[in-house]
């Protein structure tokens, strides 16, 4: 199984949107995929479940439950969700004092079998939950806008990834950055993207700014189900293909 953390310590960069549409895009291509929600806000979870599930990520951190005990099949073929809950936030302070805290998720995934991908939707911070995701992952995907403040936060994230790679998880790699909410013809965009390429690969495919993404959240569905003909749906489809091709390199 290939595990990918979708992370950026800044909020509003498109982590949850990318997690949902990458996971569902992979499932649509016949890849058995887990969407793992590590954010106490539970936004990814809310797209696929209408009720609070008894077993969720809180139980991974509180009871040392195994991931195969909490995953749920969604209505989409090949797509499973490991749900979060607001109670997950209670575990941040508790886990921080535990020397084994960075390894909780990795240990919970040990008995998992039969899946092709696990996509982890990380919270917008370098919390113990993000650390757990990075320790358990093969790759990191960074969604971000072509904005100055987005670039400012990259250095801290890159340092964290480098430290985890050096000390805990030597196989961890940044697969690239996905530009979201793109306004292609602005001077800022033309200035920022060349700067980003100095840090890591930037995917050729980007996701345009537009209302369809927000409307799909309101409708509690992926962009593909909301409007398969809209620009953002086609862009995410192209991104999933580029992502899979990048993994083959």
Describe this structure in words.
With 249 residues, this protein is of the alpha/beta class. The protein has a single domain, classed as P-loop containing nucleotide triphosphate hydrolases (Rossmann fold). 43% of the residues lie in helices and 14% in strands. The chain has a seven-stranded mixed beta sheet, sandwiched between helices. Helix 1 packs across helix 12. The longest helix has 18 residues.
* Structural class label: alpha/beta
- The percent range for helix content is 40-55%
**Average pLDDT across residues?**
88
CATH architecture: 3-Layer(aba) Sandwich
Radius of gyration: 17 Å
Number of strands: 7
How many structural domains in the coordinates?
Answer: 1
CATH H-level homologous superfamily name: P-loop containing nucleotide triphosphate hydrolases
CATH class: Alpha Beta
Strand percentage, roughly?
A: 5-15%
CATH topology name = Rossmann fold
What's the order of the H and E elements?
EHEHHEEHHEHEHHEHHHH
Name a few traits of the molecule.
alpha/beta; 249 residues; 12 helices; 7 strands; Rossmann fold; 14% strand; 7-stranded mixed sheet
List the helices and strands and how they pair.
Layout: E1 2-6, H1 15-28, E2 33-37, H2 43-48, H3 57-63, E3 72-73, E4 79-82, H4 91-96, H5 104-108, E5 117-121, H6 128-136, E6 139-144, H7 148-152, H8 154-167, E7 173-179, H9 187-196, H10 211-218, H11 223-226, H12 231-248
């Amino acid at each position: 199984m290939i595990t990918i953390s979708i992370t950026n310590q800044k909020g509003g960069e498109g982590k949850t949107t990318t997690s949902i549409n990458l996971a569902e895009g992979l499932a649509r291509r016949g890849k058995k995929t887990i969407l793992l929600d590590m954010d106490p806000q539970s936004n990814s979870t809310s797209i696929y479940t209408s009720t609070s599930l008894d077993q969720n990520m809180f139980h991974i951190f509180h009871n040392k439950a195994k991931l195969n005990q909490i995953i749920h099949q969604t209505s989409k073929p090949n797509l499973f969700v490991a749900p979060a809950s607001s109670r997950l936030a209670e575990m941040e302070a508790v886990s921080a004092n535990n020397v084994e805290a960075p390894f909780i998720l990795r240990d919970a995934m040990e008995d998992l079998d039969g899946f092709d991908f696990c996509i982890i939707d990380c919270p917008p911070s370098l919390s113990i939950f993000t650390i757990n995701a990075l320790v358990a992952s093969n790759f990191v995907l960074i969604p971000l806008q072509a904005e100055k403040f987005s670039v400012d936060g990259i250095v801290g994230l890159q340092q964290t990834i480098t430290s985890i790679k050096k000390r805990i998880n030597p196989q961890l790699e940044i697969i690239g950055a996905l530009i979201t909410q793109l306004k292609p013809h602005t001077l800022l965009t033309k200035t920022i993207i060349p700067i980003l390429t100095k840090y890591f690969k930037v995917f050729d495919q980007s996701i345009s700014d537009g209302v369809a993404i927000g409307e799909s959240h309101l409708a509690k569905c992926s962009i593909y189900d909301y409007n398969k003909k809209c620009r953002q749906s086609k862009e995410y489809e192209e991104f999933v293909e580029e992502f899979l091709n990048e993994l083959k390199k």
